[in-house]
Amino acid sequence: MGHWLQRNIVEPGKLPLLLALAAFVLTFVITRVITRLIRAGRGPFGNVKAGGVHIHHVVPGVVLVVVGGFGAIASREGVGSGVFAVLFGVGAGLVLDEFALILHLDDVYWTEEGRQSVEVVVITAALVGLVLAGFAPFGVNNVSAEELQNRGGVIVTVGVNFLFSLLALSKGKTRVALFGAIIPLVALVGAIRLARPGSPWARRFYRRRPRARAKAGLRAYRHDRRWTVPRRRVQDWIGGRPDPRFTGPPGRR
């Protein structure tokens, strides 16, 4: 294990990224445990308030992201880079745990919309994990020294894979586009398959093709029916079940 860590993480300079990812995941897990305990009325934890204002944990998260980000840029290497990477990871975990709150500009932590925070955290951790494992954005992986010298080939590779990801995004397949930026085959599959109903691609190219619209709608229905329930169960297990009756900030956690 030590040899693998030295060869694949330390020598390539990926240790700060590993520390940031570990801090990010650990912070999210601890934060969710604490908020679920507060929600259940257990433990010594409670909401943080200052002058009657409820302080969401996204606030210290933003501070830590700023400190960790600028600190990492300034230090670049050595012990300092590792310390600032941890600070950045902790801050990112706190911020993305309340991603839905930022998106909706409302306290939706325990509502249906709050699931978006869990999904963003999972996707972020997965993407960073892929980069940590050696996958480069837009498919420039396992490139030899000779191939690197051929800048034209690298540029074409990046451009084509970027185009595939962009096509997948235009077809309403956000997750596929994100992971396709790291794994080109995923983007290729998303680019060639039918678009989801309501996506920019469907509105532009399926408008006068009723059969294509019907087929796309049927495929989206079958996909959602198959995966929505399992995905929500996983989200509930990670972040807690949303409360549709929740109406406001007081005592939300």
UniProtKB/TrEMBL annotation:
Q: Does the keyword Transcription regulation apply?
A: no
Sequence intervals crossing the membrane: 15-34, 55-75, 81-105, 117-140, 152-169, 176-195
Task: Enumerate the UniProt keywords alphabetically.
Answer: Membrane, Transmembrane, Transmembrane helix
Keyword Ribosomal protein in record = no
Domain of life here?
A: Bacteria
What is this protein identified as? Answer: Integral membrane protein
